[in-house]
Every structure is written in structure tokens, then in C-alpha cells.
Specification:
- This protein is α/β, with parallel strands linked by helices and 664 residues long.
- 43% of the residues lie in helices and 12% in strands.
- The strands form three sheets. Strands 6-7-15-14-9-8-13 form a seven-stranded mixed beta sheet, sandwiched between helices.
- The protein is globular and about 75 Å long.
């Protein structure tokens, strides 16, 4: 049974049932624009769409022949999309494109667009349905969504002829309002004490307070709601998107080239049946989706890469061992199982009835190996240790890092001609973030800039990183998360020869996103009200009838989840178990929707699934996009091409933060 509390299932329900299922006709034609096709593709399979009686799916921007079908237009409320709609009915020589028209828009249709439609009598006479669905986001997985706005970070901090920060903030609020309407709940809004998050929170509250009466009937009042909307912007944690993350999903999106991975579609080449794998011209291209319809993906996506490789092979061998039909014949010995991709491919040939299942195993071994090959080729092991030392402020033994050592290590990598420029940029931005609070002198930083020999575009990225609180002249807002200082306990345990219960699994994966601490504190109603103030009404998270207070033991356990070992993973033999199921929560479980302006990272997405399981809070995470390090660097580069707009945005941010501090 589908859980409609999950945003992705709610999105599917809106598209499949409230839109397509509501039209009673044997012949349905669905017309979409670029945005709505992406919304639909993220939440539904084409099979699901055709099951609702849709015969054809067409692009509204393409010329088409008239058909005697019911035409369902699923469009974004944008002028260009409405113009294409009207174009279908404005030709005198053709009385109509389709006899019956059903119009569904993803969000509110403003007066200008409505009047454009009303002026076309040929169209109006055929309209049977006009409805706003309130679905202005993509839901690529059960607990994650995004606004599909990869340029929003630069828009939030840059004035241009076509946009301004205020316009960008209003667009975000309009779409978050749609999210609240779709969920049918009026949220308690909390926003980080950073300029962008605060303004978005205030504007959204005003937008919800001024809802038209027709909308208010769709949404529960705050008094009947158990829903907190937490608004952050990327400056609350600039470290997480810059670090190399080595869990499976995050590593795939970080290291697989963009030409091979678009959204969740992975493209790769395999040898043809008659071809030789060593001949490049004997290969065919395959495309697969990395989504929750793949039975392995939910189980593997948040594993550390070392665990995932071991787990996938063990899982395959367990399947073969427990299935009487699927027994591998390997040189007369069926006890050894398989050890890699080549043998799984051989198994696919021997047992074609299991080809689809074996294909999934083959895919994930291929992906994991591709990630590991890139990891080794780019020699990320050593640089990742330095990244972690900078982010944590301590080395793998828990000792505070020394300024001279960190500076020397970073300089060494900046001077390494074999190192990729984007890896250098990521490391240097992390260093600048750390340097601002560790007394590194400007002359030392300038010397490192000379060593790196940045291009003009790279200098722009470094300059524009001020908007995230990185670099000289930035004014990052320090958020109090009440994180306990356990350095004394570390030293005490070390003297006694005890293992620290908070030791992390791998030296390259010690950092935990700041969001993890925020969610733990929010679940126990201990999140600092000064740093994360309520916008409007105040209410504890678990204020719903029949709910209990937050469990501090669970919150503590969640913070330290997965922190049992601190070994490296070259010789790792232990195989972790994988559930892969999203836990069903009680109906009165509090709902938290996180929104991050500037983009949420895949490491933060992982934290949300862990929080949902550990804290029994229905957490969903989203942002303007799901951001990777390369996308973040591109957004910083896009800020007026030389730091002009970005510097202006940074000053605007600092002025706002200064005003907030002066009010305290």
C-alpha cells in the first residue's frame, strides 16, 4: 500500500489520479511542456501514465496533427507555455486542434495568463476542465524533492536585467506555498538566522497569511497541523557540498561524468553479443534509471562505497545459494559463487530467466567499480584525509590540527600539477573557510593563490564564495547547535585504551553534515530559538494530539549512528546489512520539511533517511536543486562572471546580518 504521507507518493497521486484519472474518456492525449515533463518523469513511470488511459504523450511546443481525443494539457503557469496552448486554437483554417480540452497547471495561474486564455474563444468553447494542481517541484525519491532551479544560488545573490534576489525569493515562496497546499497543511515556519533564509521565511509566512479563501479550504489551520517547515540557505553549512563524500549515491553523483549521468539516468556502453570487449566499435549503449524501482538502489544508496562493493557480491551469492533453480556452475564447483562483474555477466547468459535481476547486480558492481577507479585515478584518498582534517579541525586521532601543518598540506596539493583544478578549488575553499577562524594571515593566503595560479574564472569562484561565508571579508552567521565538547572524553578514553563510541567508520568520512545536528535538536525541541527563530506562530514539534515529547536517547543515538570504527577501507571485509525500506511512521508522527535555498546535498539527503528511522519524525528534504560540488562551483562562477554581482550580493548579505546583530 502506498504511503501518501510521502511527498513523492503525493506527487504521483496528484498527477495520476487527480489529473489523469479524473478525465473519463477512452481516448486521452497528454500534452506537456519541458517543466511538467520533468515533474512527471521524476515521480511516475510512463507505464503508470498509460495505465490511466493515456494513448499519446506529446510536447506542446511541437507541431501536431489534430486528433479527435480529449486533450489534457499539463503546463507550468508560464507565459511561453500558455502561448503554445493558444497557438493550437488560433488558426482560422483549422476550427480546432482537439474537441475537448482539460487544462491543468502546476501552480497558480495569474490574471494576465488567465486573460490570454479567455481571449481565445475557439479555445474557451472547448475547455471542460481548468484546475491548479499545486505540484511545482520534482520528487526523484521518497524523502527528497527539489525545485529544479540550478541557477537559484546565483539569482539569490545577483542583480541582473532579468532577475533580482527579491524576484528569486518570491518564486521560491510561491512554489513552497504550492507544496503546503498539496500536503494540505499549514506549517509552523522556522528559518535559520541567515539573511536569505530569514527573508524567504518571512515572505512565505506573509504569502500563506494572505491565501485566497478558495485556497484556505485546501489546507488545515496551524492549530490542527503537526508540520514544521525548516528553511535554511546554503551558507548554514558550506562544508558539506565541498567535501568528497564516499557513500554510494553521493559518490556516483560526484564522480560519474555529467555526460553519463543526467538526473537519475545513467548511460554506459557494453560489448555486443558478437563483439569483443577490447574493441571500442563493438559496443552498444544502455540507459538505466537509478531510482526506487530498482530493488537494490534503496538498499545501497547510503552505504559507504567499501561496504557497498562487498555487500552487492554477498547479496548476489546469497540469492544464488538460496534459489534452487539459479545455481551457478563454475568449473564443477557451485560453492564459491561469484567474485565480480565478469562472472555475473556469465550467469546472465546461463540463466536468461533471471536476466533482469542479474542485470541490476551487474549494473551496481559496474557503478561501484567505476567510482573506485575514479577514486584511485584521481588519488582522492590522501586529499580526502586533508579535507576531513580541515572540516573537523581534528585529525583521525582526535588531536587538534596545527595551522602550519594544514597550510603546508594544502600548499602541497595546490602545487601538484597532476591534481584536477576542481579538486584544488574544493580543497582551497575548505581551507579558506577554516582559515577565517584559525588565524591564517592574508599574506599566506595570497602566497597560496600564487602557487595555485588560478584562472580568472577560478578567481571569480573564490571571490563569490563570500556569499557562503567563505574567505576574507565574509561574515558568516555562527549558529549555536549546542553540540557537546567531547575532546576531554576522547583523551580520557585514549588513556584508558578504550575505543571512543563516537569514532567514525573511515578516516575519509568523519564529517557529518550540520543538518544532522539540527534535526536531532529539532526532534527534542532543543533547537536554539535565537538562531532558528519561529516565523509567526510558535509551537513545539510534537504538539499534535496524542504525540509524545522527543526522545533524547534516540536523538543521541542518531547523532552517533554509524560511528563504530575508524579504520581505512582497503582491506575491509565486514559486510553491512541493508534494509532499503522507508519506515512507516504512525499517522500522528510530526512532519518536518527541510528546504535549503542554494541546494541540498546527497549527504544531507542521507541524513534525512537516517533521521526518519531513528527519530520517528517524518522528515523530507529539498532545496532549489540537489547540488553537487561541481554544480556549486558553476553557480558561484555564474555570479556576474567576475565577482561583481557576487560581491554585491555578499555585501547585501553582510549588511543584513549586521542589522540582525545590532538588534540583538
Amino acid at each position: 500500500k502506498k504511503n501518501k504521507r510521502m511527498l513523492r507518493e503525493k506527487t504521483r497521486d496528484l498527477i495520476l489520479n487527480e489529473m489523469l484519472g479524473s478525465i473519463k474518456s477512452d481516448r486521452k492525449l497528454l500534452l506537456v511542456d519541458h517543466s511538467t515533463m520533468r515533474i512527471m518523469s521524476a515521480a511516475c513511470r510512463m507505464y503508470d501514465v498509460y495505465q490511466q488511459g493515456v494513448t499519446v504523450v506529446e510536447d506542446v511546443t511541437v507541431n501536431r496533427q489534430p486528433l479527435p481525443f480529449d486533450a489534457i494539457y499539463f503546463l507550468s503557469p508560464q507565459e511561453q507555455s500558455v502561448e503554445y496552448l493558444i497557438k493550437d486554437y488560433d488558426k482560422p483554417e483549422r476550427p480546432y486542434q482537439y474537441p475537448r480540452v482539460h487544462l491543468f497547471f502546476t501552480g497558480q495561474l495569474d490574471d494576465k495568463l488567465l486573460q490570454m486564455i479567455q481571449r481565445n474563444n475557439n479555445l474557451v468553447s472547448r475547455v471542460q476542465t481548468l484546475k491548479e494542481l499545486h505540484v511545482e517541484w520534482l520528487s526523484p525519491e521518497s524523502q527528497a524533492y527539489h525545485l529544479d532551479s540550478v541557477d537559484m544560488l546565483s539569482r539569490l545573490f545577483t542583480d541582473s536585467e532579468n532577475s533580482s534576489p527579491e524576484v528569486a525569493e518570491f518564486e521560491i515562496c510561491r512554489r513552497l506555498r504550492s507544496l503546503c497546499l498539496a500536503l494540505g497543511q499549514y506549517p509552523i515556519i522556522r528559518a535559520a538566522r541567515t539573511s536569505v533564509a530569514s527573508r524567504i521565511g518571512s515572505t512565505l509566512q506573509d504569502t500563506l497569511d494572505s491565501l485566497p479563501k478558495s485556497y484556505k479550504s485546501l489546507i488545515k489551520p496551524q492549530s490542527a497541523s503537526n508540520f514544521t517547515l525548516l528553511i535554511l540557505d546554503r551558507s548554514f553549512d558550506p562544508v558539506s557540498p565541498l567535501l568528497h563524500e564516499f557513500t554510494y549515491q553521493a559518490m556516483i553523483y560526484d564522480l560519474i561524468p555529467s555526460e553519463q549521468l543526467q538526473d537519475n539516468c545513467y548511460t554506459y556502453k557494453i560489448p555486443t553479443e558478437s563483439g569483443d570487449s577490447k574493441k571500442g566499435d563493438q559496443k552498444k549503449t544502455k540507459q538505466v534509471l537509478l531510482d526506487e524501482t530498482d530493488f537494490l538502489w534503496p538498499k545501497m544508496r547510503h552505504m559507504h562505497i567499501a561496504d557497498s562493493i562487498n555487500w552487492i557480491i554477498k547479496s548476489f551469492n546469497n540469492f544464488v545459494k538460496t534459489n534452487k533453480i539459479a545455481t551457478l556452475q563454475k568449473g564443477g564447483d557451485n560453492k564459491t559463487g561469484v567474485a565480480g562483474l565478469k562472472q555475473i555477466n556469465q550467469a546472465m547468459k546461463e540463466m536468461p530467466q533471471y536476466q533482469e535481476m542479474f542485470g541490476k547486480y551487474s549494473l551496481h558492481i559496474r557503478l561501484a567499480n567505476e567510482c573506485m577507479n575514479t577514486y584511485k585515478t584521481r588519488e582522492l584518498a590522501n586529499v580526502a584525509i586533508v579535507e576531513q582534517d580541515i572540516a573537523m579541525g581534528t585529525d583521525m586521532d582526535g588531536q587538534t590540527v596545527k595551522k602550519g601543518n594544514v597550510t603546508s598540506e594544502v600548499r602541497k596539493y595546490l602545487n601538484d600539477e597532476s591534481m584536477r583544478s576542481d579538486d584544488k578549488l574544493r580543497l582551497f575553499l575548505l581551507f579558506l573557510w577554516w582559515a577565517s577562524s584559525n588565524g591564517v594571515k592574508d599574506k599566506d593566503i595570497e602566497e597560496m593563490n600564487k602557487v595555485a595560479g588560478w584562472t580568472s574564472e577560478e578567481r571569480s569562484i573564490i571571490s563569490n564564495a563570500k556569499v557562503l561565508g567563505i574567505g576574507a571579508g565574509s561574515k558568516a552567521v555562527k549558529l549555536n547547535l549546542s553540540k557537546p565538547d567531547d575532546s576531554k572524553n576522547k583523551k580520557k578514553n585514549k588513556k584508558k585504551g578504550k575505543e571512543d563510541p563516537d569514532d567514525v567508520p573511515y578516516a575519509v568520512s568523519r564529517w557529518q553534515p550540520v543538518l544532522k545536528e539540527i534535526l536531532a535538536n529539532l526532534s527534542t525541541d532543543t533547537l536554539d530559538v535565537k538562531d532558528f527563530p519561529y516565523i509567526g506562530k510558535q509551537a513545539p514539534l510534537r504538539s499534535g494530539e496524542g504525540s509524545s515529547g522527543g526522545d533524547k536517547t534516540k536523538a543521541k543515538s542518531y547523532k552517533s549512528k554509524g560511528k563504530e570504527r575508524k579504520d581505512t577501507w582497503a582491506d575491509e571485509k565486514e559486510v553491512v546489512e541493508a534494509e532499503g525500506k522507508v519506515k512507516k511512521l504512525p499517522d500522528n508522527a510530526p512532519r518536518v520539511v527541510v528546504f535549503i535555498a542554494g541546494g541540498a546535498t546527497y549527504s544531507e539527503v542521507r541524513c534525512v533517511y537516517e533521521a526518519r528511522e531513528a527519530l520517528e519524525v517524518d522528515v523530507t528534504i529539498g532545496g532549489t536543486t540537489l547540488v553537487t560540488a561541481s554544480e556549486l562551483l558553476n553557480q558561484l562562477k555564474a555570479m556576474s562572471g567576475g565577482g561583481g554581482g557576487g560581491a554585491s550580493g555578499a555585501r547585501r548579505k553582510q549588511e543584513s546580518d549586521s542589522e540582525e546583530e545590532s538588534d540583538d
